[in-house]
Here is the input.
Amino acid sequence: MDLFLEDDYKNAIRARLKDRATTRKPLTLKKVSEKIAIQYTYLSKALNDEKTHLSEDHLFAITRVLDLLPEEADYLMLLRSHAVASNLERKADLKLKLERIRKARKLRASMQEFNAMQVQLEMAYLLDPLCLLTNIALHLDEYFHHPKKLCVALGVSPGKLRAVLRNLEQLGFVELGAGEFEVRKMLKSRFHYNTDHPLMRVHQSLLKQYASSQLLKTAETDKHAFMATFTADEATFEKIKQEFQGFLGKVEKLAGQSKAKGMYQLSFDLFRWL
Here is the structure.
């Protein structure tokens, strides 16, 4: 249970005791009174009589017995201060502080929920190569105006394509229209996540497997495949890596200057076997 939903420290204590009874070894008021060295009758009265309050020391001891987090304990202490305050100005000030804490907690919970949903969407995108391929293909006029053609082009069912399009919309890549396969606008020109994303390596591996399958089905005239295993020294290996980076820079420049008429795949692996 969330203590920050409570506006009375006594109710919060009772609620936490009730919650403990269902999740852990039950803790009775009598046991609590023994642990904090207070008479059981007084503790019971303090929690049930509006005019009787626990001392700060006793409440602090109870927060320890209940294993409250530091921010939960502070919140209960603040609730008690508000309950016993006799100065109206101070009481109002304490009320504002309590409201700010509740709003901050609510905002944090909303952000956590949003982040969890964002992670799920990113997982769906990065763990399914069709999401990336569809995203890039929609930058081609033919498929932007007629997205359903991707069912044949990529070998996917209409239902799968609809799911991919919804995912792209939720991630902010596209704006969908009212039609079943209507794309109104492409919102991002960036398709890929950074290499520091925790799922990027898995994504690359899955995409590589998907690309290898496509390569087998591609006509010889529409592909160029090369693989070499060779011996060299460390210095040569470093020079080859530099040459590769230079080559990638040239490819990026050429692709950036080109019109979007087709979708291509370039894969390059350079690594040390032994």
